[in-house]
From TrEMBL:
Name of the featured protein: Knr4/Smi1-like domain-containing protein
Pfam families: SMI1_KNR4
Knr4/Smi1-like domain sequence ranges: 30-147
InterPro entries: Knr4/Smi1-like_dom (IPR018958), Knr4/Smi1-like_sf (IPR037883)
Superkingdom as given in the UniProt entry: Bacteria
Length: 184
């Protein structure tokens, strides 16, 4: 797995993010630090600097229905779901198509909660139960994952199905370039 730099925001990444969201409303460093303290995490770069200095959510993508503000969830997330726990490690390190998994449904259901609710923040939705997550804890910290009703997969050229760079900046660059998510 290609490592994404989650500790330092590179100037090229920040320039690309500013270009993609020129009219963004940033959250500010105090609010970012308060969110991190409340949830027991440190957001991975360059997303951390993006939210603090460039843009905290946008009605334009990515994804198709817009980029969610840091502390919010998409409208179609649903009520009555378990509380999200970003400080718990994200449980996956490889794609998982649970609709094809031969295990009993009860066993799969028990494993799904952490996939949706642990170790990530939800960046937004493309509709139809397809959500984009930024992993904030665990081995895939800094990577983007697509989680849908059928399964979950990491985003980036190293994982297949796309020519995009891994990580938040690569995900935004790919979208800003007008490319379909899965262009391979």
């Amino acid at each position: 797995m290609v490592s994404v730099n989650t500790d330092h925001a590179g100037p090229d990444d920040l320039a690309a993010l500013r270009a993609a969201f020129p009219d963004g409303e940033p959250l500010g460093w105090d609010a970012v630090r308060a969110f991190e303290a409340e949830h027991g995490i440190v957001l991975p770069e360059p997303y951390r600097t993006f939210v603090a200095e460039i843009c905290d959510g946008s009605c334009t993508g990515p994804p198709d229905f817009g980029l969610e503000p840091l502390a919010e969830l998409p409208d179609d997330w649903g009520d009555g779901r378990p509380e999200r726990v970003p400080a718990q490690p994200f449980p996956l390190t490889e794609p998982w198509v649970w609709e094809d998994d031969p295990r009993p449904e009860e066993e799969i259901e028990a494993l799904l909660g952490p996939v949706y609710d642990h170790g990530s923040i939800v960046l937004g939705t493309d509709g139809c139960g397809m959500y984009w997550h930024l992993v904030v804890t665990g081995p895939h910290r800094g990577h983007i994952w697509n989680i849908s009703g059928e399964g979950a997969a990491p985003f980036g050229a190293e994982f297949g199905h796309t020519t995009a760079e891994a990580g938040f900046a690569g995900w935004v660059r790919h979208w800003a370039g007008g490319k379909p998510w899965y262009d391979k």
